[in-house]
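Annotated sample (chain length 301).
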Amino acid sequence: MGSACLEKVTPPRRFIKMAKVKDYTSLSTSEIYRRIAAGTFPAQVTLGPKSVAWVESEILQWCDSLAAQRGDPAAFAELVSKLARFAIDNREAIRTARPAEVDGLNDRANDCWEPLLAVAEVAGGNWPRIARNAAATLHGLEEDTPSIGAELLASIRDAFDTRRTERLATADLLETLAEDEEAPWAAWNRGKPMTPHQLSKRLSEFGIKPGAHRIGFKTAKGYKREQFEEAFKRYLSADTPGKSVTRLQASNHAASSDFETVTRSAAVTDQNGLKASNGAGCNHVTDPKGVQTEDNAEYFG
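Output written by the structure step:
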């Protein structure tokens, strides 16, 4: 009998969800997303609208590399000592270094990379070339992956669609964001849901600020969908996954308060808002002092 040729078969990639990733790594959801943003953890793969997963082999490989690093404490301690010595001896040279910008990167990306490129310039040898190649490569990956700001905008757009409303109180918006287990918002604040201050800080990057409005005898702070329309058009592509929800049409005799709450039925206005009929009233008072922020700092930079 002739010998048979056995071909090496590459096993198919197996995808795992967040719960399994946390089980393998013992990391919290917020820590996983923090490390992904820092480029030190395998990135998630988008499988469909609001569905992400991780490649199991990549997670296991990350765990193996972490175990290998911890296997030689003496070598790790020596490396720490060398890095500390380098920092002390070269801090002034690094502080005054002005490395040339990397072609292809925008101004913000070059600003972010400048300190790292300065370290590479002072280290000399092949490090400047390696650092510049890394900057160009990672920037290319970032161009293909939505930024955390764009991801937040997409989630907010879905929140408005899910609630079928044009106005959302901050508390209701945050509650809706936290309902998505695959998004980072439920564990954004050191394992806890995103706070109103953190949401406001993120949205301020797009020129969006919350407003304080009187609803009956109460005051609620929140957002109108029309505040986001320009950002949606600018930062979210037409094919960005999102929920498709048919908006409700206002009746001739309906009136709307400024924000919907969880306990109220969802009444949706058009871009100009509902106008009260002769038999219904609507109060709308804006607080000129704006929104007070919390003292706690945002967990992710």
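Annotation: Residues 243-301 have pLDDT under 50 and may be disordered.
Annotation: The first helix runs from residue 18 to 25.
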